What we know:
Layout lengths: L5 H4 L44 H18 L1 H11 L1 H14 L9 H23 L8 H30 L6 H30 L1 H8 L7 H12 L8 H6 L1 H28 L5 H26 L1 H11 L2 E3 L5 E3 L4 H12 L8 H25 L7
Antiparallel strand pairs: 1-2
Amino acid sequence: MTFTSAAQGRSPSVGTSPIAPNPIPQSRETGEALPEKGQDGTPVTVKQAPVAKPWAHFVAGALGGMTAATLTSPLDVLKTRLQSDFYQHQLAASRAARGVPPLSELSFYRTSLLHIRETFQILLAIPKVEGPRALFKGLGPNLIGVVPARAINFFAYGNGKRIISQNFNDGKEAAWVHLLAAAQAGIVTGTATNPIWLVKTRLQLDKSHAERAGGRQYKNALDCTMQTVRAEGIKGLYRGLTASYLGVTESTMQWVLYEQMKSWLANREERLLASGRQPTAWDETVAWTGRLGAAGGAKFIAALVTYPHEVVRTRLRQAPVTTSATGKPQLKYTGLVQCFKLIWKEEGMAALYGGLTPHMLRVVPSAAIMFGMYEAVLKFLGTDSKV
Length: 387
């Protein structure tokens, strides 16, 4: 006797469509999805998109800033000294003793050569006169400033870019997204870390006080902070903040240029893959050094355009004192615009670019190191800098 199921003898009802097959192949035993296979039968691996990790930008920025600051500390000390009016007066006296005409009477070419020569003279003189440790003076407060500053900046920029693009640009990157993200990151960073940079600057310039008063004015970073608060109040820790906000233009320009250069490099790599040709030695070189060059090139352009604000910010933080017409001591520089005008009037336009050579020698490799470390740490943590 043969038994048949009711379902076998039952004809399909009218209007019932057959069940569509599952487009994803599944295991008959477990029901789990099986990987797709190529024509040769080997499984096709699908590259997973990096997972967004907001905290990773904070860690990567801190490590990148710490590495770059340590390696370029001697040039940072040199730059700060060349920006100060104390060392500018020393250089002016040295030029006069050698019979060199004032900078305003020299051609741009001779001024540039003189500036480069004086830069390296001071760089070599610092370890001879003060010892090798003087090249790292202020590194402690510098690291205390750099680590949180870079951590905050990269955190604010990376997450700001993601939030702006997802809410206002359908999750796509664009130049205006980079612009807004970089501007807000610069404002947040400048406000949070201005007191640290002020203390660092004054410690680096403490040698000028030692020359005039016969001893160090500040024992350490804490003593510098306490003296500043006692003499100028809490607002004294935020001297130069306006110039710091002006410096947001530099960081914003740097981020926008860096992102555009990264986009060009990505498009170049896509075209190379689409062409199907084998990468040449030049292609391999661009692949390895492209982002480092993009970071350094973006910083070079941004720093060159916006450098005068660095000099003004240093002068405002240094807070030199002069004597008024009534004989009372008063601050020489009282504000951003007044500082610009006074430097231009007393020292000429060249003074607004004092310390440019060591600044460029420091910030360009520093940017390459910092951004390279940032991208590498993000990759190590399983994410990237894309939205």
